[in-house]
Amino acid sequence: MKSILLLHGWNDENYTSQTDSKDAWDNRKVFVDKLSKDYKIYKLNFPGFCGQPEPDKAWYLKDYVEYVFKYIKDNNLKVDYILGYSFGGAVATLYNVMKDPTQKIILISPAIARNGVTTKIHNNPLRNKLRNIYLKYIVKNKYMIHGTKFLNDSYQNILRIELIKEVNLIKPDLLTIIYGSEDNMVNPNYVINNLDEEHKKRVYMVDGGSHDIANSHPDDIISILTR
């Protein structure tokens, strides 16, 4: 049986302050149970989620990649696929580019594009503090309202992700991308339009699915992965 490592998304309901669960995939249990019929499942929680300790300083995307790499190495895992959901899709993408260009990856509703909007990452502590206040108290961003300083500062860093170029660096036969046609968090058409022709062929669209297609259309996803 092939093995698969699941990387979860940035869901505020999975913040340690918001849940007693120790598994960030508990809110997509039906999907994971169906997936486990065809794959040996490995899972991890990112720092700040479901009881996982937090570092002292904010992380960037590359830090999450290193975290995954260390998890695989420390546990001596043989991972046939890395499946990244939403933010986890960004981590999986950069993992292939940074760590192992032979690693097969599955991206579900991947947060790999800001739809053409570029936002510079600033290292000015005062500027970032003011932006945190703006997002938390003016915009009332749920990810900021419930987050710790580590999560809020890291969220600002990962929010600026644009990884279309990196996706195009992955060998097409190692890549599977699945979006819901009604995704309201990432524009699938923007992603598709900016992929190379061979990479476009690796995108599967679930009709009527939103960003949370693992809950709304688990059987459609499983069907794609087991073809």
Tell me about this structure.
The chain is α/β, with parallel strands linked by helices and 227 residues long. It has a single domain, classed as Rossmann fold (3-Layer(aba) Sandwich). 38% of the residues lie in helices and 14% in strands. It has 11 helices and 6 strands. A 6-stranded parallel sheet has the order 2-1-3-4-5-6. Helix 3 links the parallel strand 3 (81-85) and strand 4 (104-108). The longest helix has 14 residues, at 61-74. The protein starts with a strand and ends with a helix. The model has no long low-confidence stretch (mean pLDDT 92).
Outline of this structure?
This protein is an alpha/beta fold and 227 residues long. Helices cover 38% and strands 14% of the residues.
Topology readout:
Blueprint: E1 2-7, H1 29-35, E2 39-43, H2 61-74, E3 81-85, H3 87-98, E4 104-108, H4 125-138, H5 142-145, H6 149-158, H7 164-167, E5 175-180, H8 188-193, H9 197-200, E6 203-206, H10 213-216, H11 218-225
Parallel strand pairs: 1-2, 1-3, 3-4, 4-5, 5-6
Helix pairs in contact: 2-3
Name the features.
alpha/beta; Rossmann fold; 6-stranded parallel beta sheet
- Approximate shape: globular
At CATH's second level, what is the architecture? 3-Layer(aba) Sandwich
Largest sheet: 6 strands, parallel
**Spatial strand arrangement across the major sheet:** 2-1-3-4-5-6
Could you tell me the mean pLDDT?
92
Compute the number of structural domains: 1
Give the name of the CATH superfamily. Alpha/Beta hydrolase fold, catalytic domain
N- and C-termini, Cα separation = 15 Å
Order of helices and strands: EHEHEHEHHHHEHHEHH
Question: Which ranges are low-confidence, i.e. pLDDT below 50, for 5 or more consecutive residues?
Answer: none
Structural class designation: alpha/beta
